[in-house]
Amino acid sequence: MQIETEKVALSLESFIREYTDKLEREGVIFGLSGGVDSAVVAALCERALGPEKVLALVMPEKDSKKEHTKNALNFARELNIEAKLVDITPYLEKLGVYKLFPWDKTLSWGKLKGVLVKKAYHFYERKTGKIPFLESLSGFKDKEYSSYLARGNAYYRIKHRLRMILLYLYAELENRLVVGAANKTEYKIGYFVKYGCDDATDIMPLRNLYKTQVRELARYLNIPARIIEKSPSPDVMPGLADDEEVIRISYEKMDLILLALEKGWKLADIVTALEIEEDKVIYIKNLVQKSEHMRKNYVP
Predict the structure, then answer these.
(1) With CB atoms counted within 10 Å of each terminal CB, which end of the chain scores lower, N or C?
(2) Distance (Å, rounded) from C-alpha 209 to C-alpha 15?
(3) C-alpha span between 255 and 244 (Å, rounded)
(4) Cβ-based neighbours of 53, under 8 Å, separated by 6 or more
């Protein structure tokens, strides 16, 4: 799992320069979330092209934690790159997205919505014995509580798709290359939104790096500890505080399982070598299989 960070960084910087020139763009643009993946992309782009050719869009909405927005804007200032703050709340309100879940006006929006979502997530898992994230990777035919799953998907996926539209709006107006920040772990297990800002881009520098490798690269690039060390969060559903609460396994264990599967290890060997429960390995295999449709388009 270890990488030669300097060699990887230089290779990715060259990759960014190559495609910016090849596609005849005058600069790059990406979404800056305040998380480690987009921070690494920002640092690589700044090193590859210089700050004057880099634009970050920071696109919070009413469910976003202010901490993440603050981290994103502060990091952009530290890199000396341009950052535009675009609140996507009005667009989501126009689309009726926030009405997909009920709420009580006697409590604050974030507090109540977070309580409802968290309880619903754990209720589904308790009642069905199934992890909502796995169940949400495919359709909902004949599934229990299918309307909850469907509304949940609609609620958070539109946010990433709207961000993708805004990235391409600015990219085309300013002749910029859209750079994505999805890593190999998220891509392999389906922890991204198809045709969202973490999928529909021009280039994906981090797609061959597992999450733990991205963190290693982040340390080499001197990304602030406040970004590297904070819990990774989807920041699209209040109440679900971090990725590992949604996925139900740590990135460290998940990356090792994925790497072993990639190398063709047998189930028993993975269980023994990693000292991990067999059902955890089977779960990761199921995530990869059930999300396959997200990584391809089907044609006759």
Answers:
(1) C
(2) 14
(3) 13
(4) 20, 26, 27, 28, 45
The pair phi, psi for residue 190, each rounded to 5°, is 80, 20
CATH of domain 5-294: 3.40.50.620
State the residue for tokens 């904070």: 230
Token pair 């089907």 in the structure block, residue? 298
Structure confidence at residue 283 as a pLDDT band (50, 70, 90): very high
Largest CA-CA distance found in the chain, in angstroms, rounded = 55
Residue with tokens 């922890």: 191
Burial group, residue 197, by CB count within 10 angstroms (0-12, 13-18, 19+): buried
**Contact in structure between 57 and 29 (CB atoms under 8 Å):** yes
Q: Is the pTM value of this prediction over 0.85?
A: yes
Share of the chain above pLDDT 90, in %: 73
Judging by DSSP bridges, how do beta strands 176-178 and 27-31 pair with one another? parallel
